[in-house]
Structures
1.
Amino acid sequence: MGLNIGGQVGKVNGKELSYSDFVQRYLLKNEPVVLTGLMDDWRACKDWVLPDGRLNLPFFSTHFGSSTVQVAYCDTKEFTDQKREEMSVSEFIGYWLEFSSGEFNDASPHEFDGKSLLYLKDWHFVKEYPEYLAYTTPLFFRDDWLNLYLDKYRMHEDPETDKEKNEICCSDYRFVYMGEKGTWTPLHADVFRSYSWSANVCGKKKWYFLSPTQRHLVFDRNMKCSVYDIFEDVSKTKFPAFDKAIWMECTQEENEIIFVPSGWYHQVHNLEDTISINHNWFNAYNISWVWDLLLRDYNEAKEYIADIKDICDDFEELCQRNLAANTGMNFQDFFVFIVRFSFANLVLLYCLVRDYENFVGLSSQRARHIYFNLESARDAALKMNSTGLAQNGSIPIDFNRNLGDSAFLELCMALGRTYQLLHEPCNISEITKALVDDLVEFEFVDPSASHISTPEDLVSLIDYAFTKLSSLSSGKFSH
Ligand SMILES: O=C(O)CCC(=O)C(=O)O
């Protein structure tokens, strides 16, 4: 039986959409959309595509040939994904050119002349070639806490893993994908329950989407394992509700960008030789879902090794280590992340207070955005707190110490620039150590509670700043 397709993903001209429309219509509703008109000036669209519209493969061998990349064998399955191997871009292009003279095999769609189709995935192109400005991230996707953070910090420090390897694979979530006609990506929801966007520089993709409200329909009875390929003969015994799922589909053309909402399952097929740019990201709108997923993954990790609990010296520590290895972060990583982001947003809010004598700035879109960020971080901290799991053994994060750290100041600056871009342009004072000292003196942050060890501490820190702000706007405070 074929898929039950309930609708097509809509297409909207991105040039005619404001940032706040995008937020209202897609981010807040968590709905997919295809955006057109946003790739006009991209260098990638010129350099990577030949005048006749084909992919410029020799360009990649010549300029980026020595990069080591991950390549998926599309006709293989390893756990929940395709089997991958590392090779150089030159090798990959070499295989591509060799196979492309073969015959496409309709009976076995992921093979070419009996050989598996190769799909280059998750190439950290921007991290590897920061000087080569292949594209600019469209405005709609700029409020990206994940990549802004990873530009300055690592998500998880593990002294036991190979540092160099970690350097590449955990460095960011900005990728290039490259594959010939017939390559594909199995059904999945994205890492961390992040949003993603994917821009077709060349070629065409077919997307199949399932809303998170129907997630249970593609899982087995125990909700442990999901369907791998929605076009294979899905076992009714194993996945009894699969045929009840109602899908959305979409054909994404060249120069179109698809927004993949948080937690939506999707399977993707390259209908032509295709190269795409793709980011994963999260922000205030989905940060608490990131926590929900982390908690779910933690419970799974714990259940998986439950039988060794009694013989384990530090069972909790092992669960957290496994969580970081499987999900990409553990509770402490998430906590440090939201604390640093909260600190950064407090700095930005303070800058607005300081820059606007009579605080009119606090009703601006930018101030509301920063306020909303802090509220979302507070909500995530409250959720963490309610589990009672995130209390133990965490190292206090000192607000004042962070303020002295250049990585932190850079994060504040990058975040400040982002909100300047998204909202009304106006000058914001430079975020310097002096300003930050000023902030401390100003007692915007409770000096007696600036060591954050628990989610509860973070909630108190944010509440204190909110109280201070409300006293500012009611005129009780003068600077
Ligand atoms: O383009 C692909 O093959 C997969 C992309 C994807 O899954 C994503 O952007 O989330």
2.
Amino acid sequence: MQEKNPFLSKTLFLKGLKCKKLLYLSKYYPNLKHEVSSRTEELFETGNEVNALAKKLFQKGREIPSNETREKQIELTLSFLKEGVENIYEASFFLDSIFVRTDILHKGKKGWNIYEVKSTTGLKDEHIYDIALQYYVVKGCGFDIESANLVHINPDYIRWGELEIEKLLTIKDLTEKIIDSQKKIKEKIEIFKEVLKGEMPEVDIGGHCFENYTCEFRNYCWKNIPENSILRIEAHWMDRFELYKKGILVLEDLNQEEFEGNSKMFIDAYIGKKVIFNKKNIKEFLESLWYPMAFLDFETFSYAIPLYDGTKPYQQIPFQYSLYIIYSRDSEPEHFNYIAPPRTDPRKELTEKLLREIPLEACVIVYNEKFEKRIINELSEFLPEHREKLLLINNNVRDLMLPFKRKDYYHWEMLGSHSLKKVLPAVIPEMSYEEMDIKNGEMAMSAYFKMCKSNSPEEIAKIRDSLIHYCSLDTLAMVKILKKLQELTEN
Ligand code: SF4
């Protein structure tokens, strides 16, 4: 552990806003952090790419290299300022133990303009603090500031042809808000410096551990929370942190009488290890389906900077599907799948292959229809030549999630959830996502990005296999669950 001192960087300041213990741990015990997920790394890289684009709006700037020492960065900034450089990227300042870097510092008529670049589609509270701290330090160093701004992604931008950076990025002038928050910034700085001079603050775990992002010290702070604790159950039907504050750690400790409706049922089912089965409703649902049945699941990626024509920032682009077709009650399912080659616009090829494979009169079974229907709709808008057929597919979509969402089938192990990840192991115990390399959609997206960046044929082949395995399990899960419901309603 380094010697205690009040030094604060902008990153540390922002961590202090989330949790004082996080500030302390980040500064003095960084080795206790858990490994950063590939998704976090991607978000970081995206931030850097958006930052690089924003710099193009302020041409001919000079950059302060981040690999220099802080002293050198400050010295270089001062020399650029003296030289009259009009745009400085990563300008660095130090005031009263606080070090900040501004993404872009632009010289205006009445002073300097601060631009903080974010890959979000709008303003968040933490951005105000972020920019306000920069304002506090730069102004405190004796520089006049004309404006303080956020540069963020414009969610309505649609790409056609070359990327239009000035349309992709929106500049929001926050000067007034930033000036108003200066008193608060000063107070926070004082508080955080005191924290850094003292012993590790005692902060209990809570909802703040997940606010905006999952805290990197979660494994450390949560090490004594048992595996079966309610704190490890992500359930919207109970306020797990409120219950924890009341001393309740496991579901068995809950008093059912204090709950009503579904929540009461979830607790009752869990304690009694019950399975709820509404045969009439499930039968009705099954009777609304027909053969051939096509079980369909897409995997998608989304990215801040639209890569293809007709797409918006963060639009979900399908890069993979898995399709099982059952022609009649007694026939075996036939499997088809598609996965886009790396670094190509997958939409046309994916659509045309799907349309060759899926019988147009099929009952299309998905899990959570909102998602698949939206993807098909967006494909139909982009590919008008296939619009009619795609809309026909959408009309024939039936949602297998429905009986689980309505609790027509509820297994105590679902813990109030109707997600496929919870439903599958409860209904078909021999199937689960636990042992797989890719366990959810977010991991599938990360794997796809990794595959796009890779130049190793072996690595690409390995990722492809994992992706195919994952997406196939999602659709095979639907096939098995449906079969199970059919069997249960027959007895
Ligand atoms: S895990 Fe929670 S309590 Fe621990 S440092 Fe992070 S935010 Fe604070």
